[in-house]
């Protein structure tokens, strides 16, 4: 008989894990709270415009990339429409304080040259720095889809060094140190706490060449659902799990919104662990385990403005644009006492793949959940006039700043939509609207490590809270979770044989 698995949560992690298992003959059933599956892959439509909610920039999708290999194994790579960003300008970084814009090219040589032009005395240091980042990535076997040979505490000294200290070890110029941390909002970088390996992996993904989704990232979620269903699995949307019955450290069944009970041999939770606790029978986990996970700090949230543009008013920009008020603020997004917003990024997602003009513009910036706490007991669509006015005020601040780098932007705007930390909390089922799940802290790595195995015998964990987040990190965790059922290195070996 085929093993039967129920997956709680149809976000990116749940769908990749489900697709990996279904492809291997496991009977998979996924329960997703939202009508649209995919979590951060979700797109929404308003007045004929399509907007992405989370996965705007994708690393690892080029040929030979880790995500490309995983998606090829699942048979979905050729179903995804992509466009590569400009080779000589994958990103720009603008500082309002001096009006300086840095253009950042892809590739190791391009990346070094991008900054060596402005900081020629640092060229040799830049080369050492980028080589050190790639060396850190070599310490992570799973990132390269290799058999794992080490644990967290058998790595080099630099691996768990704080990212800001790692940069400072190689780079002398304070301005350049700040510039090289420009991707901090992509992983909630915090000085003295974010491990160097997180900084290295995220940067390398994009240095190797970023891509964008033509028409939105929902197509990844839809393709994963198709893999599950083509292998006789089921994905129930709009039907969240409401209760998990546990007895003698084993799940007996789950109850969904439809009132039915569902049983399986194994269960996988792809939701935030702190939300999982609310679904379980009393006493399912030791209080000490619950307290430990609830004490782990979560990454900050975000505020996003989605703009529908008037036709042929804004040229399409084939790279991501980062803006910062001044130097020295890159590590300050976690500091709630700083003026909001002191930095943001904006992008024009591709609609056709041959875009001359942008159809939409997305502006997003980190935001702490505390800024929305006065409405935390409200529901989507019922938060009141004060909340709507506050959102428009926040949107206005971001648009005003973006207007400084895109003159005439306001006259190009047709419609505006917004998302706050409350939106992220409610749609992603993420604690306090956390964008990247639990924080990884090099000062407390044992606290921030959550194993895929649990004290409930037939329950495993997956998703961005367990290991790495993002387009690459989540599928790697999904492989670990799936192999806990299929056998160690089962999927890794199969993928490597296909290369």
Keywords:
499 residues, alpha/beta, seven-stranded mixed sheet, five-stranded parallel sheet, 33% helix, globular
Range of helix content? 25-40%
Strand order of the largest sheet: 7-6-15-16-17-14-18
Radius of gyration: 22 Å
Structural class: alpha/beta
- Mean pLDDT rating: 94
Total strand segments: 19
Structural account:
The radius of gyration is 22 Å and the shape is globular. The mean pLDDT is 94. It is of the alpha/beta class and 499 residues long. The chain is 33% helix and 19% strand. The chain is built from 16 helices and 19 strands. It starts with a strand and ends with a helix. The strands form five sheets. The chain has a seven-stranded mixed beta sheet with strand order 7-6-15-16-17-14-18. Strand 10 and strand 11 form a beta hairpin.
Summary?
With 499 residues, the protein is of the alpha/beta class. It has helices at 12-23, 66-74, 108-116, 123-138, 163-170, 174-180, 196-207, 218-230, 273-279, 287-295, 385-403, 409-412, 421-428, 445-448, 470-486, 490-498; strands at residues 4-8, 27-32, 43-46, 49-52, 82-84, 91-95, 101-104, 211-213, 234-237, 241-247, 250-256, 261-262, 266-269, 301-309, 320-324, 343-347, 360-367, 413-419, 459-461. A seven-stranded mixed sheet has the order 7-6-15-16-17-14-18.
Give the helices and strands, then pairings.
Blueprint: E1 4-8, H1 12-23, E2 27-32, E3 43-46, E4 49-52, H2 66-74, E5 82-84, E6 91-95, E7 101-104, H3 108-116, H4 123-138, H5 163-170, H6 174-180, H7 196-207, E8 211-213, H8 218-230, E9 234-237, E10 241-247, E11 250-256, E12 261-262, E13 266-269, H9 273-279, H10 287-295, E14 301-309, E15 320-324, E16 343-347, E17 360-367, H11 385-403, H12 409-412, E18 413-419, H13 421-428, H14 445-448, E19 459-461, H15 470-486, H16 490-498
């Amino acid at each position: 008989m085929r093993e039967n698995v129920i997956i709680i949560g149809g976000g990116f992690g749940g769908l990749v894990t489900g697709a990996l298992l279904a492809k291997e003959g496991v009977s998979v059933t996924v329960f997703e709270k939202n009508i649209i599956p995919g979590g951060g892959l979700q797109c929404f439509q308003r007045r004929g415009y399509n907007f992405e909610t989370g996965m705007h920039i994708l690393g690892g999708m080029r040929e030979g990339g880790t995500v490309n290999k995983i998606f090829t194994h699942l048979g979905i790579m050729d179903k995804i429409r992509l466009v590569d960003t400009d080779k000589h300008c994958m990103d720009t970084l603008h500082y309002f304080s001096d009006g300086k814009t840095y253009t950042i090219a892809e590739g190791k040589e391009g990346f070094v040259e991008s900054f060596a032009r402005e900081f020629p005395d640092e060229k040799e240091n830049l080369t050492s720095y980028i080589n050190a980042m790639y060396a850190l990535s070599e310490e992570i076997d799973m990132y390269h889809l290799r058999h794992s040979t080490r644990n967290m505490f058998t790595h080099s000294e630099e691996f768990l060094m704080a990212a800001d200290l790692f940069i400072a070890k190689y780079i002398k110029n304070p301005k350049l140190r700040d510039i090289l941390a420009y991707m901090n909002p992509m992983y909630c970088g915090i000085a003295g706490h974010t491990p160097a390996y997180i900084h290295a992996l995220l940067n390398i993904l994009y240095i190797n060449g970023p891509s964008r989704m033509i028409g939105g990232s929902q197509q990844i979620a839809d393709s994963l659902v198709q893999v599950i269903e083509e292998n006789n699995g089921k994905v129930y949307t709009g039907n969240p799990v409401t209760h998990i019955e546990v007895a003698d450290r084993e799940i007996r069944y789950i109850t969904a919104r439809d009132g039915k009970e569902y049983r399986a041999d194994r269960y996988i939770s792809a939701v935030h662990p702190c939300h999982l606790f609310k679904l379980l029978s009393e006493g399912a986990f030791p209080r000490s385990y619950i307290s430990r996970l609830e004490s782990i700090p979560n990454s900050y949230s975000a505020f996003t403005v989605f703009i529908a543009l008037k036709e042929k008013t804004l040229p399409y920009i084939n790279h991501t644009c980062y803006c910062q008020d001044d130097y020295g603020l890159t590590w300050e997004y976690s500091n709630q006492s700083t003026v909001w917003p002191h930095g943001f990024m904006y992008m024009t997602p591709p609609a056709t793949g041959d875009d001359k003009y942008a159809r939409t513009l997305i502006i997003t910036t980190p935001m702490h959940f505390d800024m929305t706490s006065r409405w935390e007991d409200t529901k989507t669509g019922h938060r009141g006039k004060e909340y709507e006015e506050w959102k428009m005020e926040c949107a206005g601040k971001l648009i005003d700043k973006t207007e400084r780098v895109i003159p005439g932007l306001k006259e190009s705007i047709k419609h505006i939509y917004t998302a706050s930390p409350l939106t992220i909390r409610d749609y992603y089922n993420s604690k306090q609207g956390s964008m990247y799940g639990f924080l990884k802290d090099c000062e407390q790595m044992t606290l921030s490590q959550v194993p895929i195995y649990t004290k409930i015998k037939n329950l495993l964990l997956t998703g961005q809270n367990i290991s790495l987040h993002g387009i690459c990190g989540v599928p790697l965790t999904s492989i670990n979770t799936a192999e806990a059922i299929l056998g160690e290195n089962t999927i890794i070996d199969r993928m490597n044989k296909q290369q």
